[in-house]
């Protein structure tokens, strides 16, 4: 009665104004205007537990945003209730727990059953005064943030004083009482319990999404890992082999646990949130985020494993910052042990980083401790983040996935599934794209053969000196999540669910396919930016110079191609016009502009060209089929669909695997659509026998050649590799020797043609190319050497027709001279 009196007296209005003046919410999700409320129906707001401060805050918020008011009382037909209700909290006594009181919707439901027109909308609202996992933080734990423990009145008062700028409000979808009534069992009491149950499930999901699972004390977690049956089994096996005693091995396991484990703390998260906000404002013109709604749909009841592409050291911080800002729990991040350096390592550890050695195949005890630690994080539902490429991409391409972390994650999932009690696990692919990265110079040095410098606090200070330079914008794009159980069902059927072993025989085959699928989904979420587009067009010219007018035309062509025939499911274009994109590239120092009486020229000098190659490779996969189709018209002016399909079909799967794109279901249908798109854009003309190059205007032919030039480096690498293989004959070369000789020929071609692009002869590209030929069945091994049959010779002869005679002669000359 006291609370009801408080909410209906002038004191309520006073407290609402005080809360409105004091609190500045950090996040309101979704935006109040985006709530799908039916204006003609009354609205009641529902809180997860009674809290006067939440009621006052909600009353002020609804008044500010023009929503149905949450203050005072509301009459709905013959029923009068507070406009803001709360699910009852369970009552406890010292010796036993009393039954939970009934939810307050019973009168409304009885009225709705009697009169169908008395519909009501229930809007669940979750309020978080600061955010922290349930973990000991000393004094901060008492005053700073919400956790999984219910707060007392004194703690809530202190939290209001401390967290006035860290409040988050999460609205749920409106719930209508009529939708809850079961026509078969239209009982008021049953519907009341059903409404309470659905709302509690919703509130628990939101709380899990925002706070993450409840964290154990770090020391307890490490001790539990070191004393787990799996680790003790390895300890006993090593001790039986005459290694150090079991006691020493147990102490070593504890040391490994401390070396590995994170120590996520909320005060540091809040400190880093403020620090990173200032850093991004100084470093970038903005951070564009796309696709997070896909994560929020899963976060409440799935273990999330974020798998971003790895372009820069900034990736570690950027994704955690974006998730925190959008009301999601930052993940635990797998970081290389090289980052566990003085000053930086402890800070990263408190932000959620856990560290792993580069390799621990020969250290069984370390492997057992790491696997157990990872399993406890996954089985308890903590979000994770790791980079499946294993390291940062120096060439700008998506690197093939490493098996290590994926295999450990899959084994942990199988271990939980074997018990019959497991939480669904979802991989979340994330594409991060920069207009300019901090590591520009170091990447180019390493591609030219320079040694990778060791990370150190001094190196970090050198990076801080670059903060005054412009770095443009950065985009974070979330792709289509991959549900692990569904993936395994598709690969293996439902038989894996009955397995009781964590290392089944099929693991070695499934993990590479999982990695390849995730790489493709990461690339499918790519967001184009002005630097990517300018690099695609400019580097396709022979001397990396182009008229500004023609560059704008080519940029418009690339953008229009992406709109009509997107190269990936979730790819996106930057805002603005081609002229504005060129201006952005000029402002960031990526290109130059030379004024000329007959028209300005945009060019890249010897230092800018290799840098642009990195940004082109970020998104080259989006134009793979368009570039390959255009290249086929380079010296053959006309093609029929059947002829074109026969020409491109042998090499297309290899190219798709190199660029990490999902091949279309039907290459023929995809080619037909591409030819139609190029015809609509004025680059090709339809004839009675098929398609042909446009004779007029001349600019159309030039644009078609520039588009085809995108795929020429990849096709040249394949030509050189096949030339080496066919010249040596079957059974003469090992995969390593073939890749090395192909790389040497590519390096020679780059020098002779004046192509200053170290990424063109990157060793990993040739290793991956050999692996792709093996996986497609063109090559196989006999006594460690590669063999092939006449099918490869025929396909190679067929593919040579793609090259014009001059280019073919140049490639053959390089091969013969070598």
Draw up the topology in text.
Layout: H1 2-7, H2 10-22, E1 27-29, E2 43-47, H3 52-64, E3 73-76, E4 79-82, E5 84-86, H4 106-114, E6 121-129, H5 139-143, H6 153-162, E7 167-171, E8 175-176, H7 177-180, H8 188-211, H9 218-226, H10 229-240, H11 246-260, H12 266-283, E9 286-290, H13 292-299, E10 303-308, H14 314-325, E11 332-336, H15 344-350, E12 353-356, H16 364-379, E13 384-385, H17 404-419, E14 425-434, H18 440-447, H19 457-464, E15 473-478, E16 482-483, H20 484-492, H21 507-524, H22 530-538, E17 545-547, H23 548-564, H24 578-587, E18 592-594, E19 601-603, H25 608-619, H26 624-632, E20 638-639, H27 641-648, H28 652-658, H29 667-680, E21 684-686, E22 691-693, H30 698-709, H31 712-728, H32 735-752, H33 763-775, E23 780-782, E24 785-787, H34 790-799, H35 805-817
Parallel strand pairs: 1-7, 2-5, 2-6, 9-15, 10-13, 10-14, 11-12, 11-13
Antiparallel strand pairs: 3-4, 6-7, 6-8, 14-15, 14-16, 17-19, 18-19, 20-22, 21-22, 23-24
Helix pairs in contact: 2-3, 4-8, 9-11, 9-16, 10-11, 10-16, 11-16, 12-14, 16-17, 22-23, 22-24, 22-25, 23-30, 26-30, 27-29, 28-33, 31-32, 32-33
Can you tell me about this structure?
Strands 9, 10, 11, 12, 13, 14, 15 and 16 form an 8-stranded mixed β-sheet that branches. The termini are far apart. Helix 15 (344-350) links the parallel strand 11 and strand 12 (353-356). This protein folds into 4 domains: 2-211, no CATH class; 218-521, Glycerol-3-phosphate (1)-acyltransferase (3-Layer(aba) Sandwich); 530-709, no CATH class; 712-817. The longest helix is centred in the first third of the chain and has 24 residues, at 188-211. By secondary structure, the protein is an alpha/beta fold.
């Amino acid at each position: 009665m006291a609370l009801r009196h408080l909410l209906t007296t002038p004191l309520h209005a006073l407290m609402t104004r005080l809360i409105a003046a004091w609190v500045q919410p950090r996040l309101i999700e979704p935006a109040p205007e985006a709530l799908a409320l039916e204006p003609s129906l009354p609205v009641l707001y529902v809180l997860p537990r009674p809290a006067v401060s939440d009621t006052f805050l909600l009353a002020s918020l609804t008044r500010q945003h023009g929503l149905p008011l949450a203050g005072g009382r509301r009459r709905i037909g013959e029923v009068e209730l507070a406009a803001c209700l709360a699910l009852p909290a369970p009552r406890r006594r010292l010796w036993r727990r009393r039954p939970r009181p009934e939810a307050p919707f019973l009168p409304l439901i009885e009225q709705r059953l009697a009169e169908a027109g008395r519909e009501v909308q229930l809007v669940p609202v979750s309020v978080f005064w600061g955010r922290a996992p349930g973990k000991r933080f000393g004094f901060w734990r008492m005053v700073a943030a919400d956790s999984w423990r219910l707060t007392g009145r004194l703690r809530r008062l202190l939290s209001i004083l401390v967290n006035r700028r860290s409040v988050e409000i999460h609205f749920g979808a409106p719930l209508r009482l009529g939708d809850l009534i079961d026509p078969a069992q239209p009982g008021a009491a049953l519907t009341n319990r059903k409404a309470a149950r659905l709302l509690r499930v919703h509130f628990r999901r939101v709380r899990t999404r925002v706070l993450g699972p409840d964290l154990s004390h770090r020391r307890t977690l490490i001790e539990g890992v070191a004393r787990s049956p799996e680790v003790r089994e390895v300890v006993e096996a090593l001790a039986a082999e005459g290694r150090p005693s079991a006691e020493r091995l147990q102490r070593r396991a504890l040391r490994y646990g401390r070396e590995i484990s994170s120590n996520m703390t909320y005060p540091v998260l809040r400190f880093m949130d403020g620090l990173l906000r200032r850093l991004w404002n100084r470093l970038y013109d903005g951070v564009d985020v796309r696709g997070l709604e896909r994560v929020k749909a899963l976060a409440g009841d799935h273990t999330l494993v974020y798998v971003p592409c790895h372009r820069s050291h900034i990736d570690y911080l950027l994704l955690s910052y974006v998730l925190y800002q959008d009301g999601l729990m930052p993940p635990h991040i797998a970081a290389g042990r090289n980052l566990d350096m003085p000053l930086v390592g402890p800070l990263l550890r408190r932000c959620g980083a856990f560290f792993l050695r580069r390799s621990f195949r020969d250290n069984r005890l370390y492997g057992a401790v790491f696997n157990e630690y990872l399993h406890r994080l996954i089985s308890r539902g903590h979000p994770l983040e790791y980079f499946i490429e294993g390291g940062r991409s120096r060439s700008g391409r998506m690197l093939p996935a490493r098996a290590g972390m994926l295999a450990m994650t899959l084994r942990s999932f199988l271990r939980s599934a074997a018990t019959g009690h497991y939480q669904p696990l979802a991989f979340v692919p994330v594409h991060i794209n920069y207009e300019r990265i901090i590591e520009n110079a170091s990447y180019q040095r390493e591609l030219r053969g320079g040694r990778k410098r060791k990370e150190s606090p001094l190196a970090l200070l050198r990076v801080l000196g670059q903060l005054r330079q412009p770095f443009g914008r950065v985009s974070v794009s979330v792709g289509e999540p991959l549900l692990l159980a569904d993936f395994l069902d598709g690969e293996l059927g439902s038989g894996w669910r009955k397995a009781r072993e964590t290392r089944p025989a099929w693991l070695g085959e499934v993990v590479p396919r999982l990695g390849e699928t995730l790489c493709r989904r990461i690339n499918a979420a790519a967001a184009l930016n002005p630097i990517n587009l300018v690099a695609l067009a400019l580097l396709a010219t022979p001397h990396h110079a182009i008229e500004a007018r023609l560059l704008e035309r080519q940029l418009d062509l690339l953008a229009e191609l992406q709109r009509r025939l997107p190269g990936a499911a979730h790819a996106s274009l930057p805002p603005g016009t081609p002229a504005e994109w060129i201006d952005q590239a000029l402002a960031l120092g990526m290109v130059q502009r030379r004024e000329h009486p007959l028209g300005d020229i945009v060019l890249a000098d010897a230092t800018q060209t290799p840098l642009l190659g990195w940004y082109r490779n970020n998104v080259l996969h989006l134009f793979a089929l368009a570039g390959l189709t255009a290249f086929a018209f380079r010296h053959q002016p006309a093609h029929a669909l059947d002829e074109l399909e026969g020409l491109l079909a042998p090499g297309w799967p290899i190219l798709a695997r190199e660029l990490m794109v999902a091949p279309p279901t039907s290459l023929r249908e995809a080619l037909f659509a591409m030819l139609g798109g190029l015809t609509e854009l004025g680059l090709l003309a339809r004839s009675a026998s098929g398609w042909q190059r446009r004779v007029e205007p001349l600019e159309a032919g030039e644009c078609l050649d520039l588009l085809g030039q995108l795929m020429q480096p990849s096709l040249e690498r394949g030509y050189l590799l096949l030339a080496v293989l066919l010249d040596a004959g079957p059974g003469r070369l090992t995969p390593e020797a073939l890749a090395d000789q192909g790389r040497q020929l590519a390096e020679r071609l780059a020098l002779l043609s004046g192509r200053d692009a170290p990424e063109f002869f990157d060793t990993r590209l040739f290793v991956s190319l050999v692996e792709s030929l093996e996986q497609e069945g063109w090559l196989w091994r006999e006594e460690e050497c590669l063999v092939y049959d006449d099918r490869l010779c025929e396909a190679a002869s067929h593919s040579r027709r793609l090259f014009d005679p001059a280019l073919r002669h140049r490639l053959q000359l390089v091969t013969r001279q070598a």
